[in-house]
Design goal:
6-stranded parallel beta sheet; 3-stranded antiparallel beta sheet; 38% helix; disordered N terminus; binds zinc ion; histone deacetylase activity, NAD-dependent; NAD-dependent protein deacetylase sirtuin-2; Sirtuin_cat_small_dom_sf; zinc
C-alpha cells in the first residue's frame, strides 16, 4: 500500500482516470466482503437489465435511475473504492490500444492469462472433448452409452480401453508450442505474469518454457499420471510409451491401471486451482482471455472475480463472455463490450497467434518474441 494517508483523493488525475499509483491504493476485497458481494451481484444483474432496456430504446423512468444510483452507491461503499470502480476507467481508451498503453505505462504487474482450446489449435491439437468431429468414430466398437462417456470417471473405472484408444489416435506426434504460448513465456520473462490458467491438457505451456509455478492446469494434464490403485506417479514419457503400445498402462508396483492426471467428468478440479484462484484474481491487474468460448465452468465465472478496476482483454475468433439471461439472474455478470457503460472490456477478434503477434508489435516486443520462437520447442 502507498504511504501518506492524506491523499485520499483518488480523483486527482485529469479525465477522472485512475493513475498507476492510485491502483496500488485500492485494498483487496476480503473474503467476508466477497460473500456480501455475491448478494450485490444479484442486485447488479437486475440493474444491468435496465441498462439493456435503455439500449433497446425503452425510456428509463426517473425511479429506476434513482434505484441505479442507490445500488451503485451501496456497491461502491462496500468495496471501499468510492464510486470509482463503476464510474471511472483505468484505461485511457477502451480499446486494444488502450490496453496496450496500460501495459506500456507500467500500470500492471500482475497479469493473469486464461487459455482455452483455441490457443492450441494451431499446434494441431483438436478440442477432443467435443463430439461430432469424427474423433469418436473409431470408438463405435465399444458401444459407449454416449460419446462423452469416454471421459467419465465411473465409466473409465469399469472400461478404460476406449479412453486409451482415443488417446492413441489423438496424441500429437510433436509437442510444438504455438506463438501464443511463446507470448505467455515472454510475459513471464518481462516479470508481468502472475499466473496462466489453462483448460488445455496438452502441456504446451510447459513446452514453451513457462515455469511450473506460473501454470495452473485447471482441467489437469498429461504431464503426470497416477496409478488408480497405489497412486504411484509416472511421467509423460512413460505414459506416451504406454499409450502407443497396445496394452493398457499398468502400474509396475500393483498392476492397477495408470491414468493420466487429466480431469474426467465426475472428478474435481486439481487442488492447485482452488488454492490459487481467489488470491490470484484479487491481485490481477489485467486479465487476458485467450481462445475460449467461456461457457465451461469454472472459467466462465472467473472473469467476474477480478476487481472492478481490472481491465479485461478477450482475444478470440468470436465475441463471447456475455452470460445468458438465466446466468445473469444468478449473478453472473460476464464481459460487457458493447454497452454504453463499458469502461474496461476490450475484444480483439482473431486467432490467438495473430493476437499474440499484435500485442508483441504494440508493446515493442517483436524481436523478443522472435527470439523465443526460434528456440527449439518440445517438452522440458
Ligand atoms: Zn499401483
Amino acid at each position: 500500500m502507498a504511504e501518506g494517508g492524506d491523499e485520499n483523493t483518488l480523483l486527482k488525475t485529469e479525465k477522472q482516470r485512475l493513475s498507476c499509483e492510485d491502483l496500488d491504493k485500492i485494498e483487496p476485497i476480503s473474503p467476508e466482503e466477497e460473500k456480501e458481494e455475491g448478494v450485490l451481484e444479484g442486485e447488479f444483474a437486475k440493474s444491468s437489465q435496465t441498462e439493456a432496456e435503455k439500449e433497446e430504446g425503452v425510456s428509463p423512468t426517473t425511479e429506476s435511475s434513482e434505484d441505479m444510483d442507490k445500488i451503485r452507491q451501496f456497491f461502491a461503499e462496500k468495496l471501499h473504492i468510492g464510486s470509482l470502480a463503476n464510474e471511472l476507467k483505468v484505461l485511457e481508451t477502451v480499446d486494444f490500444e488502450g490496453v496496450m498503453k496500460y501495459i506500456r505505462d507500467g500500470c500492471c504487474k500482475n497479469i493473469v492469462t486464461m487459455a482455452g482450446a483455441g490457443m492450441s489449435t494451431s499446434a494441431g491439437i483438436p478440442d477432443f472433448r467435443s463430439p461430432g468431429s469424427g474423433l469418436y468414430d473409431n470408438l463405435a466398437k465399444y458401444d459407449l452409452p454416449r460419446p462423452e462417456a469416454v471421459f467419465d470417471i465411473d465409466f473409465f473405472r469399469k472400461q478404460p480401453e476406449p479412453f486409451f484408444d482415443l488417446a492413441r489416435s489423438l496424441y500429437p506426434s510433436e509437442l510444438k508450442p504455438t506463438l501464443c504460448h511463446r507470448f505467455i513465456r515472454l510475459l513471464e520473462q518481462k516479470g508481468l505474469l502472475l499466473r496462466h490458467y489453462t483448460q488445455n491438457i496438452d502441456t504446451l505451456e510447459r513446452a514453451a518454457g513457462v515455469s511450473d509455478d506460473k501454470i495452473v492446469e485447471a482441467h489437469g494434464t498429461f504431464h503426470t499420471s497416477h496409478c488408480t490403485g497405489c497412486r504411484r506417479e509416472y511421467d509423460q514419457q512413460w505414459m506416451k510409451e504406454q499409450i502407443f503400445s497396445t496394452d493398457l498402462p499398468r502400474c509396475q508396483s500393483c498392476e492397477a491401471v495408470v491414468k493420466p492426471d487429466i480431469v474426467f467428468f465426475g472428478e474435481s478440479l486439481p487442488a492447485r486451482f482452488f488454492e490459487l484462484v481467489s488470491d490470484d484474481l484479487r491481485r490481477c491487474d489485467l486479465l487476458i482471455i485467450l481462445g475460449t468460448s467461456l461457457v465451461v465452468q469454472p472459467f466462465a465465472t472467473l472473469v467476474d472475480r477480478v476487481q472492478d478496476t481490472c481491465p479485461r482483454l478477450l482475444v478470440n475468433k468470436e465475441k463471447v463472455g456475455r452470460p445468458s439471461v438465466l446466468m445473469r439472474l444468478f449473478g453472473q455478470k460476464g464481459l460487457d463490450f458493447d454497452s454504453a457503460s463499458n469502461y474496461r472490456d476490450v475484444c480483439w477478434l482473431g486467432t490467438c497467434d495473430d493476437g499474440a503477434r499484435a500485442m508483441a508489435a504494440a508493446l515493442g516486443w517483436e524481436e523478443d518474441l522472435r527470439k523465443l520462437e526460434s528456440e527449439a520447442g518440445g517438452p522440458p
